[in-house]
Amino acid sequence: MYSSGLLLVLLAAICAVNCEVYFEEEFKDDSWEKNWVYSEHPGKEFGKFLRTAGKFFNDEEADKGLKTSEDARFYALSTKFKPFSNADKPLVVQFSVKHEQNIDCGGGYLKVFDCSLNGKDLHGDSPYEIMFGPDICGPGTKKVHVIFSYKGKNHLINKEIRCKDDVYTHFYTLIVQPDNTYEVLIDNEKVESGSLEDDWDFLPPKQIKDPEAKRPEDWDERATIPDPDDTKPEDWDKPEHIPDPDATKPDDWDDEMDGEWEPPMVDNPEYKGEWKPKQIDNPAYKGVWKHPEIENPEYTADDKLYLRNEICSVGLDLWQVKAGTIFDNFLFTDDAEYAKEKAATVKATQDGEKKVKEAQDEEDRKKAEAEAKTEEAAKEEDEDEDDEEDNTLGDAEKVDPEDHDEL
């Protein structure tokens, strides 16, 4: 613990010289309540956040974050910081999410805004620069959203990135480079990467089908054709079904009552199906016609797809059916190595969480077993008392003749 703490101190000192940390929030105390703003947008029933490490943790104080506390609620909370731009520099957005409630449907993502955001009016349609993080709803939706705003329109990544769906802490990291490339990491492991232009539909396609081109009328795409010299054999046509030759009229069949008897129909073993001439190679075959393409006149390259001219705010704007998600370790920086070292604590955090949770689960199991035994013992005691009452009643019904002398 001491060595890892010393390492973080050294990293912070190095970063102070070589990189910029634009915003960092680890919710070390209750001062977050002064810096973060709840939305008051009308028409929504918003839930509240609590600062807590949850039910199981590695270090109770260090692991405290903001936890959604009310089921079936919208959540809208944001904070502002000194504006910055990622012009000609990497942009790293990182935070941790812990779905300790074993979430069934709800968001676990953040949104990045410019300075125009009014935190008290934050809602689902508030314009944002980036939306990033996990989203889970049922077995069909377990993905990481990576959405960028470009020229006033939101663009979702066209790749599927699966998020973590267990109950432990996970770090989500988005790295955007000034060469228009990106990486998505979960717990410091790269899960996706590529080109912004290739993996988002920011721009029209470079090439389009030539609107003037048309397939020639005599273009033949048939690889094979029926053999014109092939003829159907004279004995080909046979009925599909014939009367069963082995069937006999039942002895009790009455033609007057039952009508004229007819044998049941069976499959004809000589039936050959519909005749078709055999196929031969088509001498006129030219292959599948491909529509020629031309340069798209509407396409214009943009080497600034990565650029966010102003980043000024981060918020949690989401819906949860079942509350209990803990958000922590928010980080905006231009240094991927610094972010990597901050996220390197996740393994120790997860190990501690699993150890505590396993102990709690074992305690709950023992408690449940004890309660079950107590209930079973109480049930057996009730049954014994019922048996004693039955025996008492039975004795009372046994009458001694000497007790009735009135005769």
From TrEMBL:
Q: Name one GO biological process term.
A: protein folding
Please tell me where an alpha-D-glucoside binds in this chain: Y109, K111, Y128, D135, D317
The UniProt family comment states: Belongs to the calreticulin family.
Per the entry, what this protein does is: Molecular calcium-binding chaperone promoting folding, oligomeric assembly and quality control in the ER via the calreticulin/calnexin cycle. This lectin may interact transiently with almost all of the monoglucosylated glycoproteins that are synthesized in the ER.
**In which residue ranges is the amino acid composition biased (Basic and acidic residues)?**
207-251, 344-377, 395-407
Region annotated Disordered sits at 196-259, 344-407
Its annotated compartments are: Endoplasmic reticulum lumen
> What are the disulphide bonds in this sequence?
C105-C137
Output this protein's name: Calreticulin
Record GO terms (molecular function): calcium ion binding; carbohydrate binding; unfolded protein binding
Q: Which UniProt key words apply to this protein?
A: Calcium, Chaperone, Disulfide bond, Endoplasmic reticulum, Lectin, Metal-binding, Repeat, Signal, Zinc
Query: Record keywords: Disulfide bond included?
Result: yes
Q: Which GO terms describe its cellular component?
A: endoplasmic reticulum lumen; endoplasmic reticulum membrane
Q: Which Pfam families match?
A: Calreticulin
User: Where is the signal peptide, in residue numbers?
Assistant: 1-19
Judging by the UniProt lineage, the source's domain of life is Eukaryota
Enumerate composition-biased segments (Acidic residues). Answer: 378-392
